[in-house]
Amino acid sequence: MGEFDLSYVIISFPLGFERCVFNTGIDLRYLKVAALNLSGSQVQSVNAEGAIVAGDIFLDSGFLARGEVRLLGAQVGGDLECSGGTFENPTGKALSADRIKVIGDISLTNGFSARGEVRLLVAQVGGTLNCGGSSFQNPGGLALNADSIEVKGSVFLKNGFSSVGDVSFIGARIGTNLDCGGGLFKNPSARALTLDHAQVAGSIFLRNGFAAEGEVWLVGSQVGSNLDCDKGKFKNSGGRALAAAGVGVKGSLFLRNGFSADGEVVLMDAQVGGYFSLNGGTIRNPQGTAIHADRLRVDGSLFMRHPFSADGEVRLIGGQIGANLEAQGGTFRNLGGQAFTASGITVKGGLFLQEFSVEGLVRLVGISIGGNLECDGGKLSNPDGRSFSAENAIVQGHVFLRGGFSSQGGTSLFGASIGGSLDCSGGRFSSLDLRTLNAKGFFRWSNVQNAASTRLDLRHASTGPIEDEGASWPEMGNLSLDGFAYSGISGGPRDAKTRLEWLDRVQQFTLQPYQQLAKVLRESGDVRGARDVLFGMEDRRRRKEKNRPWHWRSWDWMLKYTIGYGQRSEWALMWLLGLTLLGSLLFGCGYLGGAVSPNEKDAYEAFERQGEPTPYYPRFNAVVYSFEHSFPFVNLGVKEYWAPKPGRGATVPELQWARFRAIRDATFRGYYLCRFCAPRILRWWLWFQTVAGWVLATMFVAGLTGIVKSGS
Question: Which of 199, 148, 153 is nearest to 175 (CA)?
Fold first, then answer.
């Protein structure tokens, strides 16, 4: 057939050319017709711009166009049926239907094939857009361009759909679902599927055999129900495999059950009204970011449970999770970098990382958790740096780093606030930094593996009762306790001796750890233990100060052995009693040897003549005499009347009791055993005893009243 021109023609009946061959183009511009049927026909091109078709348009069942088919601005009262049609224009547009209005469906199915761009920009479809089982090819360009399209029903790009080039639905509005299940989208190193700012009232399905080689973009899209990518395959190595920044999903988001992405998954500023599941998903972007979901908001829970795997950093900075964040058994790899980053995130439920495996850093700086943080059995490895960092975290519940938890690398909870307990029992740590941590509940440190080499830093931390054991204490130099405050000891050694061994493992001596331990022991009723601790504190403090002048070292010695640095005031009393006993022995033997005599003249002369003073003169009592000179301000009426002789004595006192006389006269090889006749030595002793008594009594009072205090 030759040239065919029906432009601007009005035909009131259906127009059909089935299985016809047109050697030239067909001009149907602004044609008005009841229906148009070109099923099975072969044409060079069709130009139906502005055409108005009251019924259906059929370009199907073997229809072949070797040039552009133009339906720009056309109006179709029924369906646009292109199933089984072939549209070829490799260097240009194969089908141009910008601004087309179709009351019914657009069907590009059942073997539909297009080589060249298919354009449906700003199209309006009253039914569905069905491209199932079709093929679109425009390598390096747009294979299907449906930007700003409005489809009242669903869009189907599934069941054998394939494209080479970008499939674009930027700004599209879809009344129900967008289903790409089983579709194949290929545009390497460029966009394979673009849905930026699209509005889908139902769900988006990129699942069950969906495969994209190139970028899939859903930036700013709004989804009324679910975004389901289960078992979908996204590949764009070294780039973005799935870019959904700012996407809004009123339902749930599924990247699970065999979902895989070879490239970055971007979900920054995304909002999910249901839950977000990555269970069983695999994302690979080595040495880069696997999931970039800063400021992600999920009203439900976020799941990354076994066998979820991420090779590259998982970022959730500043996000909000309405329920739990669960990554039990998940695997995160980014050795030497950050493997899992959730800094500043708010989790209203719990954060569960049990049995998870990480190569790289888990970074939870500033995280807020409404429930528990549970890492039981987790395996972390980042030997050249920190493996777990939760500085300034706020956890309303408990923190569990127990039950086989292992961290090869630094573990830090610096500045964290914990409403419950911190349980590290059964864990393995290279180092644990708990500086300035505040935990309201217990701090459990027992059955710790490789405890001796673990560096435990509790400086300025505050916890409830501690539960530990000696076998789990770090060795000397690996323990820091300055400023550590705890309310009690509920498990482990409670005696002062063992606890002092604990404190001795701190290399840098400070007063506070001892004062804290003493406070805890005192409040538990162990007052003696508290004093032992403070005594040990003072003793170690003075041993550390090796360069003190000799007079200060002498003072330290006296404080230690007289009143135990203010903790053993009774020692001074014992020294006084010992001084009294020794003085009693010396003065008693001195009296028996004639070295002690009365002070008054008449009594002295009588004592010299007859061995006893005048009647009614107070008799000498060695014990009372020594006691009066040992204890200041004590006067029992003896020391005023008796004193060592000014010269060598010779008068032996007369004794009334035979037993005392026997003691006085006892000899051994010609020497009297109980006579001491050396008044000068007694006088020296008297002076010494008096001074020593004053010193010891003063120390006793000072220690008893607290004038001398530990730490002063």
Answer: 153
686 within a domain of the structure (yes/no)? yes
Whether 292 and 437 share a structural domain: yes
> What does the pLDDT read at residue 350?
97
Beta strands in 413-488 (DSSP E): 417-418, 422-423, 428-433, 438-439, 443-445, 455-457, 462-463, 466-468, 479-480, 485-486
pLDDT at position 588, please? Answer: 79
User: Three-class SS string for 532-597?
Assistant: HHHHHHHHHHHHHCCCCCHHHHHHHHHHHHHHHHHCCHHHHHHHHHHHHHHHHHHHHHHHHCCCEE
**660 membership: H or E segment, kind and range:** helix 658-665
Q: How far apart are CA 160 and CA 83, in angstroms?
A: 13
Q: Is 209 helix (H, G, I), strand (E, B) or coil?
A: coil
d(CA 124, CA 148): 9
Give me the DSSP letters along 229-285: -TT-EEEEEEEEEEE-TT-EESS-EE--SS-EEEEEEE-TT-EESS-EE-TT-EEEE
Most distant CA pair in the chain: distance in Å? 173
Strands 466-468, 52-53: pairing kind: unpaired
3-state secondary structure of 427: coil
Helix (H, G, I), strand (E, B) or coil at 39: coil
Cα 443 to Cα 229: distance, rounded to the nearest angstrom: 43
Mean pLDDT in order along the chain per 10 residues (712 residues): 82 93 93 96 95 97 96 97 96 96 96 96 97 95 97 95 97 97 95 97 96 97 97 95 97 96 97 97 95 97 95 96 97 94 97 96 97 96 93 97 95 97 96 97 95 96 96 94 96 92 92 94 92 84 72 68 71 84 84 81 80 83 86 84 74 66 66 71 86 82 66 47
388 within a domain of the structure (yes/no): yes
The residue written with tokens 């006793």 in the block is: 700
Q: For the chain, how many structural domains are there in total?
A: 2
Establish if 346 belongs to a structural domain: yes
Asked whether residue 435 falls in the same domain as residue 583, the answer is no
Q: Would you say residue 200 lies in a domain? A: no
Which among 22, 136, 49, 39 is positioned nearest to 81, based on CA atoms?
Answer: 39
Residues 435 and 579 occupy one common structural domain: no
Rounded CA-CA distance 421/401 in Å is 11
Residues 430 and 291 in one domain: yes
pLDDT computed for residue 707 by the predictor: 62
Q: 């001596």: which residue's tokens? A: 509
Find, among 654, 644, 706, the residue nearest to 680 by Cα. 644
Q: What is the CA angle 406-407-410, rounded to 5? A: 160
> Do 274 and 299 meet the contact criterion of CB atoms below 8 Å apart?
yes
CB 169 within 8 A of CB 194: yes
Q: How far apart are CA 228 and CA 664, in angstroms?
A: 112
Sequential DSSP letters for 121-155: TT-EESS-EE-TT-EEEEEEEEEEE-TT-EESS-E
Tell me which residue range forms the domain holding 391: 284-441
Indicate the residue type of 157: L
Looking at the fold, whether 575 and 437 belong to one and the same domain comes out as no
Task: Return d(Cα 611, Cα 248) in angstroms, integer.
Answer: 117
pTM of the model: 0.84
Which of 413, 441, 469 represents a domain boundary (last residue)?
Answer: 441
- What SS3 state is found at 663? helix
Q: Of the candidates 396, 424, 441, which is a domain's last residue? A: 441
pLDDT on residue 379: 96
